[in-house]
Amino acid sequence: MATQPTPAALPEPPASQGSAARSVPFVPAPSEVGAYLRRIGAERPVRADAAGLRELHLLHLRAVPFENLSIHLGEPVVLEEKALLGKVVGARRGGFCYEVNTAFAVLLRGLGYGVELLQARVFGEGGKLGIPYDHMALRVETVEGERWLADVGFGDHSHFPLVFDARDDQEDPGGVFRIVETADGDLDVLRDGKSQYRMEIRPRELADFAAGAWYHRTSPDSHFPRSLVCSRLTEEGRITLSGTKLITRTHGGRDERVLGGDDEVREAYRELFGIELDALPVVSPPAAQPPVVSPPSVREGNVNSDSR
Q1: Among 159, 83, 154, 146, which residue's Cα sits nearest to residue 113?
Q2: Continuous H helices in 64-167
Q3: N or C end: fewer C-beta atoms under 10 angstroms in the chain?
Q4: DSSP 235
């Protein structure tokens, strides 16, 4: 029987750093790039072009799961490039958007791509937008100067990057996507006609996302502290483990079953996602979760938009 982890003490909410002073982007060492490529089963692209980006994007989605296990294991969520390389590559884990998209950005920079972090707000029920800095996406530039929207941190989404400056339909194995300009100069990303998230086009710093990550790690209004998810793309479809429920989707089919105990759950994490766990993540009941107030930057409304 796995012991339940003790939740880590919650830190004070981080303040928004803003983007007035642009920091120098972190670029990994060649050895770190090589280890990352081995992690996702990719060959080093000959050049930083669109074909290489498409291959890396797809393989990343198949190898690195979208997961929120750290929240329920009492592990810190650290928005720092070296720490995220250690988690995704060294510990062979995944993460939510801030973690896996930041790690992917580091890999791309090490391969010669230009990468900018963009903040977005996710559309919820009734078309309501989420909090500022609620999601992170990437604007990637190739050696030819083409710009792409890459996002390996939104769960079930496009398999390949989208042409950032295109405004017509873009066919993808994950659906039909379209990027639409809003009246305020933002960009809405649509999938099969339904709005997914709204991006600002101004590039951001990693520190700008600290308040959004804190909110999604601690707030009872976020779905992440209330549920478990570990999900990745497969060649046949998608596989998702949520607590003890295992959902396998293949082309045109869906199978759902409840696993039979801790050992079977631990084996599923290991065999299906490559994640070794000593203790299993446990969702705390709502009454046991400490009260959460919005970070000052969100409460005062002086940060820009976003959500996931």
Answers
A1: 146
A2: 69-73, 81-85, 97-110
A3: N
A4: S
> Would you say residue 148 has pLDDT above 80?
yes
Those residues with Cβ within 8 angstroms of residue 148's Cβ, 6 or more apart along the chain or in another chain: 50, 53, 139, 140, 141, 142, 161, 162, 163, 164
Q: What percent of the chain has pLDDT over 90?
A: 82
Is residue 227 a contact partner of residue 283, using CB atoms and an 8 Å limit? yes
Give the relative orientation of helices 97-110 and 30-40 as an angle to the nearest 10 degrees.
120
Q: What is the pLDDT of residues 188-230, one digit of tens each?
A: 999 999 999 999 999 999 999 999 999 999 999 999 999 999 9
CA pair distance 75, 64, nearest whole angstrom: 18
pLDDT at 249 over 80: yes
Q: What are phi and psi of 255, to 5 degrees?
A: -125, 135
Q: Is 199 helix (H, G, I), strand (E, B) or coil?
A: strand
**Whole-structure pTM value:** 0.87
Two structure tokens written together for 65: 């799961």
State the helix-helix crossing angle for 30-40 and 50-63, rounded to 10 degrees.
60
pLDDT value, residue 14: 54
